[in-house]
């Protein structure tokens, strides 16, 4: 699995699972975490949505913008 922190909340994800733990809360991602060449891969769009953010791809700028969040 893999984990990260967002403020005081610990975020935990596991390859092969769409479940994410955010602090004491569990949410389901729209896409499961996968493993490719020994690396865990998670959809930033799915993770952003689970955290209450919006992810928007700007193809012209080749940039992903993540905005919002839980207030």
Descriptive notes:
The structure is a single chain. The protein has 71 residues and is mostly beta strands. The chain contains one helix and eight strands, in the order ββββββαββ. The mean pLDDT is 91. A four-stranded antiparallel sheet has the order 1-2-3-4, with no helix packed on it. It has one helix at residues 44-50, and strands spanning 2-6, 9-13, 19-22, 25-28, 34-36, 39-41, 53-58, 63-68. The protein is globular, with a radius of gyration of 13 Å.
In this structure, how is the largest beta sheet organized? Answer: 4 strands, antiparallel
- Assign a percent range to the helix content: under 10%
Number of strands: 8
Tertiary shape: globular
Q: What is the helix/strand order?
A: EEEEEEHEE
Distance between the termini: 28 Å
Could you list the spans in which at least 5 consecutive residues all have pLDDT below 50?
none
Mean pLDDT: 91
Rounded Rg: 13 Å
